[in-house]
Inverse folding.
């Protein structure tokens, strides 16, 4: 009796099939909204056949690090299927987050047929391109969409539902997860990842769960699943993504003593920063002075209401060896400041470009742009490299290997 390929309601135990010996370099992916190529950095064993980004500065950084033969700099709405070679095993899409982020305008995705899209609405021309590939029989077997945590609830949840619906309508099963980068690097950076797989692709049973994981499925995501229309929800699954092994590097271990692109603040500037702190944050600094070792904290300036209901700017610090989420001024927030406390000695300065890159999991041989603002922007708009690697090695690659094995078995029978 022939063994059938796993369907939406069925998956074979991985022990039933043996994956063939394949060259990992043969795995092909397209990278959309590529920025400086951080998905590319996380998929080192894959071959990137196509990359696209709208920003010339980021495209220049991409070329410096990965070459430019496969890179198209320009509006994704103007990319054609003729520019996409072959057939990709994976399409990665980290579409812009400004209109979905709490730090942005929260205008949402907009509609698929809008004449002018919001920045996050560039999802729609990107999706039209994937639909065109499907029409040519070149639909990628897997997709990963990445965005901010706010994408779950933006536009009263309609944006998340719209993405899930188009995935389901296009013949994909999909599973969403919220992955906080602090499990991998010294940065708190929760992001939404939607991993989608074509319905005809065989999936190992142990990679699918019958219930949400506490590690990757916060209550807002579970509620968003529950709110999906029944037809869409029938294509939704929960991925059984394993947790990473080992502990991430501590924030204090990433700090440069002599950064080349930023200067240490003067005593007066540091005193002014400390004066902006509330009693709670002052207490954190005093505790750091008594810690008996050098303490490094991340500081953001935020607008808060005082006891009279007036808006005041506050400096808020954390000393838990985890930096705050990197943001860029384009996202409506300030740059991160570091506070180094060694006994009674307190120093402060902006986070350097190299430190920002390290917080994204980039190696020090990654070439950053010369201008500080550009280096910080490239890092702050990227995806954390070890998260990409983990999703690939723990989920996507096992699925593709298993599917290849199932196809070989069917052909043999």
């Amino acid at each position: 009796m022939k063994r059938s390929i796993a369907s939406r309601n069925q998956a074979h135990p991985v022990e039933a099939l043996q994956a063939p010996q394949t060259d990992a370099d043969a795995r092909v992916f397209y990278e959309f909204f590529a920025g400086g190529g951080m998905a590319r950095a996380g998929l080192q064993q894959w071959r990137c056949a196509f990359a696209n980004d709208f920003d010339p500065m980021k495209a220049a950084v991409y070329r410096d690090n990965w070459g430019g033969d496969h890179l198209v700099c320009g509006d994704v709405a103007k990319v054609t299927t003729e520019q996409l070679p072959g057939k990709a095993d994976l399409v990665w899409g980290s579409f812009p987050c400004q209109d979905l982020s709490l730090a942005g305008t929260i205008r949402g995705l907009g509609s698929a047929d809008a004449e002018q899209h919001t920045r996050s609405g560039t999802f729609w021309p990107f999706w039209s391109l994937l639909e065109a590939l499907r029409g040519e029989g070149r639909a990628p077997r897997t997709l990963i969409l990445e965005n901010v945590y706010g994408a779950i609830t933006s536009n009263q949840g309609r944006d998340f539902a719209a993405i899930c619906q188009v995935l389901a309508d296009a013949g994909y099963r999909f599973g969403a997860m919220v992955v906080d980068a602090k499990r991998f690097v010294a940065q708190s950076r929760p992001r939404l990842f939607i991993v989608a797989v074509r319905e005809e692709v065989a999936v190992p049973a142990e990679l699918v769960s019958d219930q949400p994981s506490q590690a990757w499925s916060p209550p807002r995501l579970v509620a968003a699943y529950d709110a999906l229309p029944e037809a869409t929800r029938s294509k939704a699954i929960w991925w059984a993504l394993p947790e990473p092994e080992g502990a991430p590097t501590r924030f204090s271990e990433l700090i440069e003593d002599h950064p080349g692109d930023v200067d240490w603040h003067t005593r007066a500037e540091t005193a002014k920063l400390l004066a902006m702190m509330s009693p709670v944050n002052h207490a954190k600094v005093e505790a750091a002075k008594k810690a008996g070792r050098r303490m490094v904290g991340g500081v953001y300036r935020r607008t808060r209401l005082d006891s009279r209901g007036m808006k005041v700017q506050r400096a808020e610090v954390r000393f838990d060896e985890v930096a705050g989420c990197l943001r860029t001024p384009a996202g409506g927030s300030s740059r991160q400041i570091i506070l180094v406390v060694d006994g009674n000695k307190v120093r402060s300065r902006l986070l350097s470009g190299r430190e920002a890159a390290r917080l994204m999991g980039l190696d020090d041989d990654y070439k950053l742009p010369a201008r500080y603002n550009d280096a910080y922007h490239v890092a702050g708009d990227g995806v954390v490299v070890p998260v990409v690697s983990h999703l690939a090695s723990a989920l996507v690659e096992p699925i593709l290997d298993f599917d290849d094995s199932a196809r070989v078995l069917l052909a043999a029978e």
User: Anything to note?
Assistant: The first helix runs from residue 38 to 42.
